[in-house]
Amino acid sequence: MKESAFAGDMNVALAQGPTAVLAKPERGPGRLESSAYRMAQWLRSPRPYLMLIGFALFLGFWYLTVEVWKLPRFSQMPGPTAVITEWINPDPIYGLSLYSPEYYQHIWVSTRRVLIAFLLATATGVPLGLLLGWSLRFKEYVFPVFELLRPIPPLAWVPLAIIMFHGSETPIIFLTFLASFYATTLNTMLGVESIDVSFVRAAYCLGAKRRQVFWHVIVPGAMPFIFTGLQISVGVAWFSLVAGEMVSGQYGLGYLINTSYTMVQYPTMVIGMITLGIVGYVTSAAVRVLGNYLMQWRARELAMGAEA
Question: Of 123, 127, 163, nearest to 142 (Cα)?
């Protein structure tokens, strides 16, 4: 009888946020109006204009050091004029521009590799991080090995990756997976450890079992750290991807950068670097937007708690 009463309380108290969101979904026009309002507020704020000033300062410094002052350290570096001209040229000098199908093939191959590695890191790192933060005994066994392997850079794994995996695709995905896996696991573990122990004790006092506390207290409480870790994870995945593609592979932005450097095609090399930054920013922003969308129930629950 006591257990059934707790189950009812748990469903109301701990699952009220997500249930409320599912029971009363927002209508389409309301969401559009909210998005338009946030966009208008953002345009009225100084943030977009400061961002444009930052880009202008960067491009101006690049232009002055390379094309105007021609400093010795930057004598071999292509200027923004040469890069932009090559980038938008329908008939590029070095064979790669916005009009080249091969350019988009490099982007697609790299994005696909990062996506696969990121999904694998999420599927393995989140459960492992939850267990490391939840079970002290499990942490004593696993965490020392985890900390021993984590400082090893992906480039150091290249020989073993080539030995362990056949072909050119699997070693690259493995190297991309490593850094992403460590970031996801560590942030998830820290999220579990950041939960106030009073919530766990209160659940136990209400008669909750260990499994119920894990699913209804630990997992929701660690969600903010998990999504923060996923944003970091997708960023470091691009770091590892470039290292892997420079060693192996026939397509990809890392392969493009390394090949362009070897063949002294410096404008193409910079195009690959800028493209890598843009695609990496878009993927990180997509994870951030997804996290904010899935965590709306938590924001509303905190707001309801503040009003109460």
Answer: 127
pTM listed for this prediction: 0.82
151 lies in which domain range? 82-307
Helices and strands counted in the chain (H then E) = 15, 0
For 257-274, the DSSP string reads: HHHHHHTT-HHHHHHHHH
| Average pLDDT of every residue of the chain | 85
Identify the CATH number of the domain in which residue 139 sits.
1.10.3720.10
CA distance 21 to 296: 8
Q: How many domains does the chain have?
A: 1
Pair of tokens at residue 131: 């267990």
Start-to-end CA distance of the chain, whole Å, equals: 30
Q: Does some domain include residue 173?
A: yes
Q: What is the pLDDT of residues 15-45, one digit of tens each?
A: 444 433 334 444 445 566 777 887 888 888 8
Residue-wise DSSP of 6-52? HHHHHHHHTSHHHHHHHHSPPPHHHHHHHHHHHHHHHHHSSHHHHHH
**CB environment 30-57: b (16+ within 10 A), e (fewer):** eeeeeeeeeeeeeeeeeeeeeeeeeeee
